[in-house]
Amino acid sequence: MPIRIPEQLPAQNVLLGENIFTMESNRAANQDIRPLKVGILNLMPNKIETEVQLLRLLSNTPLQIDVDFIRIDSQAPKNTPQSHMDAFYHDFSQVADKKYDGLIVTGAPLALLKYEDVKYWDTMTTILEWAQRHVNSTLYLCWAAHAAMYHFYNFTRTLRKEKFSGVFEHKVNDPHNELLRGFDPVFYAPHSRYGHIDTANYNSVDGLHVVAESEEVGAYIVASEDKRMVFVTGHPEYDADTLGDEYFRDVKAGQTPSIPKNYFTDNDPTKPPIVRWRSHGSLFFTNWLNYYVYQTTPYDLNQLAEKSQPKR
């Protein structure tokens, strides 16, 4: 799929080096097609790394996509140059009047904070409500998935003493759900989180379905019947080294983290990781774009209907 991204975005060279098709704006403008409008609310501190991970996964369909990177506040990020933010990111206020076919809200390193203690929580809830009116289908990842469940359904996550960290086996609960089309009955996905919401809580909400889960770490993919909201509690976008980088970062900081499960060869941190989640991660994003976004979104985004409010 040609992703239309801003010229000079650092991710472009990385993706081209991986033989992934990207398209600059001038070339895309000459194609007689309406591209999908996808916003990415990037809450991760290392913006550039997350950009590459997500753009890589958005690259595997014949659809053309226009991507807007959105920032939630103006505070300078810890691990990303301010010049990068100024060049490639929109303040939410700059896109608040726009409508999008799809929106991705990333995770955030806020595991141990109460939601109301998050500095941008008020803005986050504004965006959650805005998405109900302005976005055809929203994909919430990890922390964002739990935050949305809290805001819309009043489910408070449990904070575990030991982090779910590793690559875990999952099973397909609903093989007929289009998000899982082409999935093997059993597949693997990375998790890196302290927060947890019991599967029974998801299942108690009318109109939500746990379509994939793990015996070890619980619900993984939860989707609404109307396809307007998808909650993913793990990280299908992670690079091969991401879990390892997190582990070694914590060790270097003097912490004693558990070795990520089923990740390093022989569970030995001196050996390379075993990568076995990328194919399903790519397929998941492709299915979301096709069946939950492209097949359901109106050609004229001004005709996008407001989603009925979730039942709290």
From TrEMBL:
Keywords for this protein: Acyltransferase, Amino-acid biosynthesis, Cytoplasm, Methionine biosynthesis, Transferase
Primary enzyme class: transferase
Catalysed transformations (reactions): L-homoserine + succinyl-CoA = O-succinyl-L-homoserine + CoA
GO BP annotations, alphabetical order: L-methionine biosynthetic process from homoserine via O-succinyl-L-homoserine and cystathionine
Pfam families associated with the record: HTS
EC number: 2.3.1.46
Chief localisation class: cytoplasm
Known function: Transfers a succinyl group from succinyl-CoA to L-homoserine, forming succinyl-L-homoserine.
UniProt: substrate binding residues: K163, S192, R249
Descriptive protein name: Homoserine O-succinyltransferase
Active site feature: C142 (acyl-thioester intermediate), H235 (proton acceptor), E237
This protein's encoding gene: metAS
Compartment(s) where it occurs, according to its Swiss-Prot or TrEMBL record: Cytoplasm
SUPFAM superfamilies: Class I glutamine amidotransferase-like
Family: Belongs to the MetA family.
Alphabetical list of InterPro entries matching this protein: Class_I_gatase-like (IPR029062), HST_MetA (IPR005697), MetA_family (IPR033752)
Site label Important for acyl-CoA specificity, positions: A111
Annotated site residue numbers, Important for substrate specificity: S192
Keyword 4Fe-4S: no
Pathway: Amino-acid biosynthesis; L-methionine biosynthesis via de novo pathway; O-succinyl-L-homoserine from L-homoserine: step 1/1
GO cellular component, as recorded: cytoplasm
GO MF annotation: an example: homoserine O-succinyltransferase activity
